[in-house]
Target: Polysulfide reductase
Amino acid sequence: MLEKTYKNLSRIWMVVFAIGFIALILKFITGERLAGYGSYVPWGLWVALYFHFVGIAGGVFALGVIGYVFNLTGFRENFRVVIVVSVAAVITGLFSIWLDLGQPFRFARILYAPNFGSMMAFNAWMYTFFIITAGVIFYLTLNKEKQTDFHDKKRWILPLMSLGFLFSIAFPSQSGAFFGVVDAKPFWSSPLLPILFLVSAITSGGAVLLLVYTFLHYEEFDLTHQPFKMLRYTIIGGIIFYFIAEFAEYSLVFWSPNSHIREAVELILFGPFWWVFWFVHLGGALVALYLLLKGKTYQIVGTGAFIVAVTFVSARLNILIPGQAVAELKGLKEAFYHERLRFDYSATLNEYLIALFIGAFGVALVYFGIKFLSQFTKKKLGTEL
Model:
């Protein structure tokens, strides 16, 4: 039964990857002509995926470190899996933002000629240092030397984990700050934004980690045991906290008739893409909550975790797009007419197909990373570090 499920999932992945790859080739042939963004709304679906994936990376690593430090069953034994999933998510996020660049092959300039007054340059270097730190931790957890040498190396693991933990918390928080420093966009100038980004990162990161652990350890799946218990409660708590904070922000907007962000919030709730909030964001969260609360089998709980991991990208979209879709100057929307001078952003078919390719790319990184890990360490996953 399980082997059949794996085969079906593999076939779905191959179809998604192939279709997305064709869309990717068309993107490189035509440039950005097939994309729906323009001068007024320059950041679209791929940028939202970037913030979503780096948030997942931060959430996965932060939860992994917490489980490791508190010696929760399943975390310490599988910390290399945490590293693989987290680094794979960072690389996927960077790949997503790389595709959004007008000149993608100039990306290296941010590393050899950075401007650290730019939040983008700061973030790029932070991701680089995180990947290096995660790689060093991975190496230090390999017990290939004599036992005394391994214990000498192991002294460095917790300090480096602490550094990686700071990076992982900074990923989503810095993303919120990234928007907050844009003074021309009132909707983004909210002190709640870094908190919302952090909570959504922990929630979606916990969902991805629960999904991976469920696939790896379905035979011993038990919601009363770690790590399933901790991750399940983290996801449930994260969803509830996020929507309470979101309700607090939106309700205050409608309580104050002269709020300067009212137009943006109305776009989220009642605009052309109202269904993203009500169906994908809210509806997806309610379905996931029901499955996580009521589910007893790994299939149901895994489905709930998958829904959270996918639909929480709407949390990024509901912040990213409305913040750009409101004109800074009254009358600007009517002043000029051109298909690239519109405040009404709508992702095109090419953008959606490439988004599927990005997701398939991330899944492949995790799958082959774990395969490599099991071969490289020459031991069953779940063995004590």
Residues 380-385 have pLDDT under 50 and may be disordered. The two ends are 32 Å apart (CA to CA).
